[in-house]
Batch of 3 targets.
Target 1
Amino acid sequence: MEWDIAKRELSKVKVSSNGKNELVLVQAKSNKLKCIGRGTDAAVFRFISAPQYAYKVFSNDKLEKLEQESKVYLKLGYSKYFPVYYGKGLNYLVISYEAGITLYDCLLQGIHIPKQVIIEVDNAIDYVLSRGLNPRDIHLKNILFHEGQVKLVDVSEYLEPGNDKRWEYLKEGYTEHYHLFDGKALPFWLLENVRKWYNQTRPERLNLQDFVKDLINPFQERLRF
């Protein structure tokens, strides 16, 4: 297994969870690995000798998420909407490295998000449903956009029940409000407020129109659209 060559270097990495909905902490004693992303359960690395792979290393108290995500990838099979799954180690998954920018970073940098991205995510969701899985936790940081192609890069919740409505609200927000700031770089503090406020609200009780009004009104002068 070509991807297994990183095993020794990955043993020098420690990933620790950091509270509910906070990014993991990373300690790495290897100059051959580059951390390219962090989530609430794991961090993702590339190995300089095998840059075509991405290694998702989980916190030790989140290893059940590793097993769950592995099962999801096996059930998904091959799809252009998801990374290729290669295998797993004791505390990591191996998937294909996917180039691109997250929709979150598009908003931070003022990069235009075309409507085709929304259509492609909907197509990906239809594929997930066709495989008997539940497409959850689809948000700005989990959607990569590159040369017209969309990839969903976190599938860890697809075995869980219920609808968290993340994608429905994002789609509605895109349709109703994106034209107000298309091409404008949004401040980090604003996006983080959106994330935190959403996480503190039960999805079924969230009214998007009121949510946007309450968020923007106190900061209108700072936004300067």
Target 2
Amino acid sequence: MENARTGDTGDEFEGCNFLTFLVLKGGLFFFILYVVWIYFDSNFELGPRLVSKNSSLRPYFLQKCLGLRSPFVPTVWAFNPHVQTLLSAVVCPVTGPRFQREYLELKDGGVVALDWTTFEEKTLNDHRSVVIFVCGAVTTDNAVARVCHGAWRRGFRPVVFRQRGHSDIPLTTPRLQSFGDPVDFREALEYIRATNPGSDLTAVSLSTGCGVLISYLGEYGSSTYLTAAACISPIYCAETFYSSQAISNLYRWILLLRQKALLLSHVSCLQNVDSLDGPSALRTESLVEFEEMVFSQTNGIGTMEDYWEQNEPMREIDEVAVPLLCISSKDDPLVPTESIPTELFQTYPHFFLALTERGGHCGFFEGFQPESRAEKLAFEFLRAAQRLTWPPRPTRMTY
């Protein structure tokens, strides 16, 4: 009996030790978490900094967009900008969307595609406003699925604009869409508008796809058919982006590899371009040279000076007539901070820049289960801009 009582006492002692260990471990964890929070609170701007002109739209969007006011702390294991950038390519929703592809023949005989998004839920689409997602050269299928899923969750009906020759789109003319040429996008938007009468149209894009979207907003001004647009990690100056030595060789190599794969997939069609030297283009190690050898030649542009004059996204920026939100990070490995034109956002009333300390390129992931703050903020902004155009409800008269 004495041995039994001794054993019970030992078990109780071990239980107390284990409980004390758990309490100390938990306390240490929360203490470290508190120290980390204090460090970032004192050394970084935890929320996105809104850069814009002091117009009446600024307080409106600050009020309507929670993502502009709440703290942004990146996922604890993804503070590194390269990890954030990698996440943007691989994170996708558990339940992916289904796409119904629609091919659209353009005036010059070229073909683009519209991928209309649907989900498992039996939800009527009639009340959903259409948001067009403009894909770029490096946009992955995971990113497309994630953005479309986020748009659907927030009440939008997403459609993906696929450029000619991209994503298994047949190249029917010996021409590839250049970096900032919005002509194909214009024809696609006219079709979407005609087939969705009465729907508010908005647009969102990532990375290199922003070149087409920003160019479109500037070139067509007040006749864009769009209510608002949002660009995540846009390339503000394409010429600088292609020639900059500040960008890691790895990222330059990935983009060049994607461009070469595009050329290889359409050799039979592009061989009809007399001025195109395909073998030399495939051997080049320079993004600038590839752009000159392939995109400049297939579009019939003689010099790179003329090419950039026609393709720089910001070339007609003063003509933009709808609210545009750009979301950028100071640690973006592809877009150096000095290339972000903050003065521009402080000059024009329709331009808004959400600038964060961290986020990488198209990342901005937060939470233990990573979710992009930038994508949530983009749809908040588009929804708030739509409310600006809605007529006010009539006031009931009382007697």
Target 3
Amino acid sequence: MDLSYRIAVRYFFSRNKRSFISLIARIAMAGVAVGTMSMVVVLSVFNGMEELNRRIFKTFDADVKVTPAEGKRFNVTDGMLTTIKKVNGIRGVTQIIEDNALARYGNQQTIVRLKGVDRSFEALGRLDTALIEGSLRLTGANGTPYAIVSEGIRNALSIALEDITVPLEFLYPRTDTKQLNLASSDAFNHLALRPGGVFFIETRYDDYVIAPVALVDSLMQYRGDRSALEINIAPGFREQDVSKKLAEVLGSKFVVRDRDSLNADLLRAIKMEKLFVAVTLSLIILVAAINIFFSLSMLAIEKKKDVSMLYSLGAQPALIRRIFLAEGAIVALSGAVVGLLGGVLICWLQIKYGFVSMGMTTSLVDAYPVKLIWEDILYTGIIVVMITMVVSYIPARRAAEAGLILKV
């Protein structure tokens, strides 16, 4: 062990436990431990929220989405589908028509986001974990067309799945008339479906209704065009890699985005909040570490004679500085280790047992989401070390200068 660390360790463990300096040192250790623990827990919660949002997106959104670069619709040919399916990593392609429509059920009506999907949507089973009532079928055994509605639309229209006498109607403005008279029923195309299932993910999807794409095509008069293609990726392939390959294959007429790109604003907001919280907690750790500054300053005053004796024995100012820097490092790292272990333990207990609930029950999660990322723990440790070196340097330098003056 280096001489400076041996002396620093002796100073740390040989102090009078009732001394005021020792009390300040222990307060500094406790402050660093609490700050470090808080940073680990809070950063892990942000990681958990980011992971939860990705799980929510995955429940409803496809891995990759293809939309036209201009306009709302585009023609989907067999050749285009064949080209897409040849790309390595493609598991399935779902043709989509999506637009706003007026929904009416009994005496209730509301604006919904009507999403037409083809049969591959049922085969992929993306809403399996979000279904809370009914089934995900879009066509019955006798050919009856069904709609899958969100919990928000079910509540807004007071839909009862067991009532087979009341249809769920959709109205969409006709595009084949030169003059649109909103007071006339002839100004709208009509579509009647039977509600067959209810899903719930979270509020941003509460206005969605899913229906067979062929019927939505006839309602909105797309005439074979589609508003998007949703592509699911086979296991073992990265969405970003497949989306880049698709963009190269399809060319500039289409916009190809993976799931993270589709929700980039929300994910970016979470990352920015995480960054600002990390900076704030770093400042809190700095405030706690100021006690190390006072502790070392008072220790330097108490050990003036010892420092003078070391100079007399031939010690250099650099050795004295290293002694007090090591002393500060021991205090801070003791608190940091306790804080890191405590933070990891709290996060592990939350992951394992879910002690802290979100106060609501969803189809995806009940307990508060937490995800440990070891890079965050490493960065937290680095931040603590840097703060320790900053607050320890000034008293260490002053101790070296004071001892040199006493020697003279």
